[in-house]
Amino acid sequence: KLQSSSADVYMFVGPQAGGLSVAVDDSEVTVVTPVSPLGQALLGKKVGEQIEVNVQGQKQSFILLEIQ
User: Fold this and answer.
1) Predicted confidence (pLDDT) per residue in 9-37, tens digit
2) How far, in Å, CA of 40 to CA of 43, rounded?
3) What is the model's pTM?
4) DSSP secondary structure string for all residues of 35-57
5) End-to-end distance of the chain based on CA atoms, in angstroms?
6) CA 64 – CA 17 distance, rounded (Å)
């Protein structure tokens, strides 16, 4: 679970199907792969750490809230 400036978002790091979104318990979960910019930024991070990534030329910041 990540927190962005606009909302909390749920991500699942998986080996395939990057960009796929599925509904889980009334929340949308987006799959990211470890080779994607966000997937690479998430690897090795701990709860409470800030993650910054450039997506389509725009810098996005997240705080890692939860790992399951």
Assistant:
1) 888 888 888 888 889 888 899 899 999 99
2) 5
3) 0.77
4) TSHHHHHHTT--TT-EEEEEETT
5) 8
6) 22
